[in-house]
Amino acid sequence: MTEGVLIDKGRIESTAKMGEVVLIPKKEIDIKLEADIITPDSFAGRNAEEIGNLHVWQGPRTYPLSEFFEVIGSGGSSAAETLIRIKGDAMRVKRIGEGMSAGKIEIEGSAGMHVGTGMKGGEIVVYGDADSWAGMEMTGGLLNIKGNAGDHVGCAYRGKWHGMKGGRIVIEGSARHQLGGGMDGGEILVEGNVEGFCGIRQNGGLIVVKGRALRGVGAEMAGGTIVIGGKIERFSPGFEYVSMENSVKVGEVELIGEFKKFTGDYAISKRAKGALYVDANANPEL
To answer: Would you state the pLDDT for residue 100?
Structure first.
């Protein structure tokens, strides 16, 4: 297993003086909610009644947030001074924290699709799993998923080429397909495993996977860095071996171990500048 440290640059210092809003689910949600208003930016300066009157989409209709959640507390005077706690599972609630610029959200359960999409700052902690598209196109802040994540973490949206540009995503479990697709900047750390096409079309930034990867790592990669600490089941053919390294240092991140360094993906462009580091002990055949 690869060892190393990622510096936590996105965590806010304290929540001691923050205005706190607690959301408690009232009932089971059938059709998923589009709840991009659940952000410190939207809740700041509002009391419980005003927050409850904010509208979310469910299918073709809008409803007040209070239709689905009991709202307790008030937002702080600014987004940076606002803490939101969702006390329960929110897997059927989409777009929590979308575009947030500051403050903190804690989800005491799982989160639905697009959690942290377009996030600019602040912190989101998901104590369960996160559905697909978590942290899509985020530019700043910290998204910490304590469980597993779905497909397309930190990716570009369909039809777009550029995904995550800044900030940090930490997944303490495993992730599925196309982690960091189109990534331009920022950092993604996965403590567990990933499936297919991790770092596809990556242009910049850093991806560290401490476990194994299925196939297609760095496919169509033009820039940035990927580190895989476990076995890659099917290695991408467009990468060329460069050297053996004892450590990997990218910015403030340093990982210690025996790595084989490759560059590519030359199957797409002879000018590709992507760096792929693979744990030597887990991949003796490469």
So the answer is: 98
pLDDT at 255 (0 to 100): 87
Tokens of 170: 């930490």
Per-residue model confidence (pLDDT) at position 6 = 46
Sorted by sequence, the CB contacts under 8 Å of residue 152 that are 6+ apart come out as 132, 133, 136, 177, 178, 179, 181
The tokens 């936590």 sit on which residue?
A: 8
Q: Show the low-confidence residues of the chain (pLDDT under 70).
A: 1-16
Contact 182, 162 (CB under 8 A): yes
43 phi and psi angles, rounded to 5 deg: -85, -20
Instruction: State the first-to-last Cα distance of the chain, in angstroms, to the nearest integer.
Output: 17
Question: Which is nearest to 6 in space by CA: 188, 223, 216?
Answer: 188
In the sheet with 55-58, reading across from the earlier edge strand, the strands are 61-64, 55-58, 33-34, 93-94
Does the global pTM surpass 0.70? Answer: yes
What does the pLDDT read at residue 16?
52
pLDDT for the residue 158: 85
